[in-house]
Amino acid sequence: MRIHRSSLSLSRPFLYKSSAAMITKNTSYSMFSVLFILYFSTNFSFSYGVDSITANKSLSGNQTIVSSGNTFVLGFFKPGKSSRYYVGIWYKNISPRTIVWVANRETPISDMNFAELKILDGNLVLMDKFQVTIWSTDVNSTTPNSVVATLGDDGNLVLRDGSEPRTIKGFWQSFDNPTDTLLPGGKLVYDKHKNTKQLLISWKNSEDPAPGLFSIEVDPNGRQFIMRRNRTEQYWTSGAWNGRIFSSVAELNYVFNISYVDNVNETYFTYSLYDPSSLFKSVMDVSGQLMQSSWSENAKEWNLLWSQPRQQCEVYAYCGPFGTCNQNSLSSCNCLQGFKQKSETDWNLKDYSGGCIREIDSLQCGDGSTFMDREDKFLINSQVSLPENSQSVTVRSAGECESVCLSNCSCTAYSYVGNACSVWNGELLNLQQLSENNGSGRTINVRLSASASQFSRTKKGKWVIIGAVVGSVAVVIVLLAIVVIVICRRRIRTPNAVEGSLIANIGEDNKSNIGVPFCTWESILVATENFSDANKLGQGGFGLVYKGIFPEGQEIAVKRLSSCSVQGINEFQNEVVLIAKLQHRNLVRLVGYCIKENEKILLYEYMPNKSLDAFIFDQNLCKLLNWKKRFEIISGIARGVLYLHQDSRLRIIHRDLKTSNILLDEEMNPKISDFGLARIVEGKGTIASTNRVIGTYGYMSPEYALDGLLSMKLDVFSFGVVVLEIISGKKNTGSYQSTEDLNLLSYVSG
User: Fold this and answer.
1) Which domain holds residue 110?
2) 307 with 401, same domain?
3) Which of 285, 289, 293, 627 has its CA 20 to 30 A from that of 213?
4) Domain match, 163 and 193 both
5) Which residues, in sequence order, are CB contacts of 529 under 8 Å at separation 6+?
6) 481 — phi, psi (to 5°)?
């Protein structure tokens, strides 16, 4: 029962002037305070700390319920700058607000102050100001008068019989109706009797929780996860479940405990955390990627631990029709020349599904024999991945291929490669702009109207004229400057001076102190025989490693970073500058580097026995490592780590210590390599925090993986894992003996 304002109307004579009641001024204030508190506690159905909605209580406006442990909140919210309201669940003590479930994601309301969330006829119902049902749990209850909706500390909203214990499973729960987020304990289910699947479906954009384009589901036939665009086009799978792990994402076992259940009634996936006190979420993001993050209380932000697909451009048709995805660009999505964003507002909200539309005019129809001045033209787009759903046409030349497309009103593009003609009708989807050194790039000719082509050329033409004039003047000035510089430096010019412009890429502060020779691109091509497969030593997430031999006979290992490597220019600079200052017999020696356009090359001393993991995980090679040699390798690694932490001029945290980064020389002496992720700890400081948790799962310490706490303990933890792998000959992934031992650490401790 609510107490309305009228029932609290107290006249001033009653409060201050009633001598018959002998009420003093102080007593009057006390009474007013009590009544004031009573008014607000009854006028608002709940205060923080109440975790249930009952038959005689409801939510409206800013009212909320909070789980018993103060972890989750249920109430009304408005995403971003949107003017629409939703009922949702979010974390109580995390800012900015992180939504994990939305009730009315397809039916928002315009005013939360007149809306009401309540129990009605045994259901949890959302009604608007006209008492029209907006959303409902829509279940049948045998005891409608005793139904309550309770929010648990796991984020699960449960509709249950209030007379039964809370441990009894209710007849409806939000975990059975997920939106875009799967919390620990939640499930993704395939019901075999009803032939229905639960999906995690992304938001439409960052301010609209309506179902978006991307989803993930359980595939009972393949015993795997599948990601789809528009519920149809498959673009990623987890790999099959083998009873312990999903084959393509084995690293997940390090983060949490996975369960995949397949029985006569249903197939479902669920997971739980090794540390129940951690906050963790799996989200089908608007980017089309499944993102798994943990909350760092220290940094007060979410740390991204894992995402799939790893590359944004692997998401099918991420940039929409006539949009191109460029993994190496600051903006992942761009429109083809002659096209513009269909909705700039959507693109600003990272919703690229609408893609691009033509800038001006529609296409002409016909074979071009009439109105030649209005004939459609084709703009060349090179070094792209070709869209799917092409049609092959038999022709004798590129001109004939173009004519075939022109004669078809619905043809939008053609490609002529190796005497093969392919044409596309309608929208072009899943275009990717590839780097110059990617050998799979092709050329596609996109159809534009004649006026659109002229418009593009006109825009370019003005800048060409301006550029030509300015460029001519600049060329003269530059040439004069070069002549003066050459004359002045001719007598003191050295090979190091030639390398100056490229060394500058490493940074002005380090140019003079770098201490590592710069090698020319041509000399590296000669040493590696143009990166021939015969000289390939190995491959990792960073790229390829080749063996090279310089003319004087020096053997080197050439690390060629790929354009899509997780080791970018910052890591490259870090490794060159840092390792040049480190000298120890158990650290690999950097002998040179090279930068040329997109190519980033590191040259190391050659290790004939390659890396440690090649020995200890090989059934035959591991026999070459007796216990004495394994002890010597462990001791050598320990000396290298001790040098980094205490004895070097700089206190270094390696951050990626693992068996594949331990190289072995001709005498099987270990040398720590790959300092791209290393961090310098200033002064005597040993603890820091990072907003970017990077490294290799299985070797990360828990406080670093979950909270971003960075200290020398990270390397010590990694060293411990390496020692266990050396002794046992087993990797810290997968399961051992039983499904309870999900990694090497739990196997050993058990």
Assistant:
1) 47-173
2) no
3) 293
4) no
5) 535
6) -65, -40
State whether 618 and 601 are in the same domain: no
Terminal CA-CA length for the chain: 57
Check whether 559 is labelled as a binding-site residue. yes
pLDDT at position 504:
38
- The pLDDT tens digits of the residues spanning 341-350 come to 999 999 988 8
Among residues 8, 147, 158, which one has the least CA distance to residue 68? 158
Confidence grade of residue 416 (pLDDT, cut at 50, 70, 90): very high
Q: Whose CA is closest to 287, among 318, 326, 256?
A: 318
Q: Is the pLDDT of residue 418 over 70?
A: yes
| pLDDT single digits (tens) 279-297 | 999 999 999 999 999 998 8
> The domain spanning residue 515 has which CATH number?
3.30.200.20
- Residue 424's identity, in one-letter code, is W
Both tokens assigned to 365: 């129809």
CA 610 – CA 596 distance, rounded (Å): 27
* 665, 643 contact by CB (below 8 A): no
| Residue 30: how many other CB atoms lie within 10 Å | 12
**Structural domain includes residue 464:** no
pLDDT band at 251 (very low <50, low <70, confident <90, very high): low
What type of residue is 540? G
Q: Is the model's pLDDT at 733 over the cut of 90?
A: no
Place of tokens 């740390």: 303
Report phi then psi at 504, rounded to 5: -60, -25
Within 563-669, where are the H helices?
569-579, 613-616, 627-642
Mean pLDDT of 34-61: 62
The confidence score (pLDDT) of residue 485 equals 62
* Residue 656 main-chain phi, psi, to 5 deg: -145, 45
Distances (CA, A) of 471 to 219, 275, 486, 637, 710: 60, 63, 22, 56, 50
Please give the tally of structural domains in the chain: 6
Instruction: Pull the structure tokens for residue 427.
Output: 């929208």
pTM (2 d.p.): 0.61
Examine the domain organization and report whether 725 and 623 are in the same domain: yes
Rounded to whole angstroms, how far apart are CA atoms 260 and 218? Answer: 10
Among the candidates 421, 455, 489, a domain finishes at 455
Rounded Cα gap, residues 404 and 398, in angstroms: 10
Residue 493, in any domain of the structure: no
φ/ψ of residue 631, rounded to 5: -65, -40
Write down the pLDDT at residue 455: 47
CATH code where residue 129 lies: 2.90.10.10
Residue 590 in this model has a pLDDT that exceeds 80: yes
Please give the average per-residue pLDDT across 200-214, as a whole number. Answer: 95
Beta bridge partners of 672: 587, 662
Place 601 in a pLDDT band, splitting at 50, 70 and 90.
confident
Question: Does 9 lie in the same domain as 111?
Answer: no
Under 8 Å CB-to-CB from 585, ≥6 apart: which residues?
639, 669, 671
Give bridge partners of residue 444 from the DSSP assignment.
381
CA-only gyration radius of the chain, Å: 33
549: tokens are 């031999």
Beta bridge partners of 694: none
Stretch 479-501: mean pLDDT:
48
Residue 460 lies in a domain: no
Both 223 and 123 in one domain: the answer is no
Q: Which of 286, 314, 342 is the last residue of a domain?
A: 314
Q: pLDDT confidence of 14, banded at 50, 70, 90?
A: very low
3-state secondary structure at position 31: helix
Catalytic residues: 656
Q: Quote the pLDDT of residue 52.
A: 93
Residue 550 counted as domain residue = yes
Q: Which two tokens stand for residue 24?
A: 């003093």
Q: How far apart are CA 104 and CA 87, in angstroms?
A: 6
How distant, in Å, are the alpha carbons of 171, 198, 209 from that of 270?
19, 12, 23
SS3 track for 171-206 = CEEHHHCCCCEECCCCEEEEECCCCEECCEEEEEEC
Is the CB of residue 601 less than 8 Å from the CB of residue 542? no
